[in-house]
Amino acid sequence: MDNSYKIKVQNVTKEYDLFKTQSEKLRSFFSVGNNKVPHFWSLMGISLEVHSGETIGLIGVNGSGKSTLSNIISGIIPQTTGVVDVRGDTSIIAIGAGLRGNLTGLENIRLKALMQGLTNPEIDALMDDIVGFADIGDFLYQPVKSYSSGMKSRLGFAIAVHVNPDILIIDEALSVGDDTFYQKCVDKIAEFKDLGKTIVFVSHSLKQVEILCDRVAWIHYGTLKELGPTEEIVQHYRDFTKWFKAQTKQEKKHFQRQMKNNQKTFDIDAYQKQVVADRQAAEPNNGNVAAEVKKDFYGSVISEKMTPGARWLTFAVTLVFIFTCWANISGHSMRSIIQNPSNLVHVEKVLHDSNATKSVK
Ligand SMILES: Nc1ncnc2c1ncn2[C@@H]1O[C@H](COP(=O)(O)OP(=O)(O)OP(=O)(O)O)[C@@H](O)[C@H]1O
User: In whole numbers, what is the pLDDT of the chain averaged over residues?
Assistant: First the structure.
């Protein structure tokens, strides 16, 4: 990998815990041993680079991990392991992404633009263009929760392309608009490309991908199956879907079960060892490979999981907090509770009068 990238994704994985209920989640939080919650690896080690001015397409079957990857690149969700280096501001357009349902369209425009770092006068100057591009009429004054998915997409697209991001991430946002809006978006994307901006384009429409993308990454059940020139990768993907459609119902189910099973049983430690072995083979004189790989895997990641020590600490702090509240309610001093713990259940009555406070049992 060279250093001239705009986006670098290296050995990126994403793990989800598949809790069935909220109480299972709570129990798992306080359990210090190995819990039996099933895991699912939405991404199992993706590495790719996107260069400045490039439009890269992400294709793949439903649930293969395209949105997970685009959300990680745009910083909406964290990766579990790996390096994600994005050089520039990103703006993501996904249906309804970042729009607040209780706010009106106009309020959403202002909020999102402020969040992108624009000032109020800058937003005022852009407002007519954004409103004109979205073209959703009086719905602008309605809460976004009343919008159809097409309207959300129009508003999201209009905001995202006008706040002038370096990197535009478009996740299926073109699939819900009508033809006129679609053409407007395609023209805007072309304008972006001409300006040398970088675009990540997630779509099931291979035609759109063929029109817009310079290169394509085929994401296949959490792995990067292929990365290369649009025409070639799209053709391979078409061959795969043709092959898949030709399977019997049972064969299809078997294939999908097998793929999902791989994602449930993925072993992150084995993957890390494999990366170390590959890098050691490529750099035989580097004695520091294992440490470098470990740093790449976990160095830029804030763990979403608590260590057993942190769990014990949280548990202990919670107990102390409850004890202190209870002691406060009981009206006894800490010393008297420590000397006689049964005081905790004997609430001290406190009478107030205008001049003095008198305690009686
Ligand atoms: N919060 C979550 N908890 C558990 N699993 C999740 C979560 N989010 C996504 N997944 C799983 O991760 C996998 C990848 O999902 P993702 O939405 O990235 O796929 P996709 O390729 O974008 O799919 P589609 O084409 O249908 O939009 C799916 O199997 C999905 O069920």
Answer: 86
The closest-lying atom of ligand 1 relative to the alpha carbon of residue 70 is 18
The alpha carbon of 65 and the centre of ligand 1 are apart by a number of angstroms equal to 6
Does 19 sit in the ligand 1 pocket, CB within 6 Å? no
Q: pLDDT tens, 66-115?
A: 999 999 998 889 999 999 999 987 777 776 677 899 999 999 999 988 98
Q: How far is CA 164 from the centre of its chain?
A: 22
- The 3-class secondary structure across 252-264, one letter per residue, is HHHHHHHHHHHHH
pLDDT band at 18 (very low <50, low <70, confident <90, very high): confident
Q: In what order do the strands lie in the sheet with 39-51?
A: 39-51, 5-17, 81-86
Ligand 1 touching residue 62 (CB < 6 A): yes
As a dihedral over the C-alpha atoms of residue 273, residue 278, residue 279, residue 281, rounded to 10 degrees, the angle is 120
CA distances to 14, 41, 251 from 223, rounded to whole Å, are: 11, 10, 21
Q: Is 255 in the pocket of ligand 1 (CB under 6 A)?
A: no
The fold of the 5-88+166-272 domain, in CATH, is Rossmann fold (3.40.50)
Residue 260 alpha carbon, nearest atom of ligand 1? 29
The answer to whether 227 and 48 are in contact (CB under 8 A) is yes
User: Ligand 1 centre and the CA of 43: distance in Å?
Assistant: 9
Q: How many residues does the chain have?
A: 361
| Cβ 20 under 6 angstroms from ligand 1 | no
Q: Is 40's C-beta closer than 6 angstroms to any atom of ligand 1?
A: yes
The Cα–Cα gap between 318 and 164 comes to: 46
Specify the pLDDT at position 360.
40
The domain locations on the chain are 5-88+166-272, 306-361
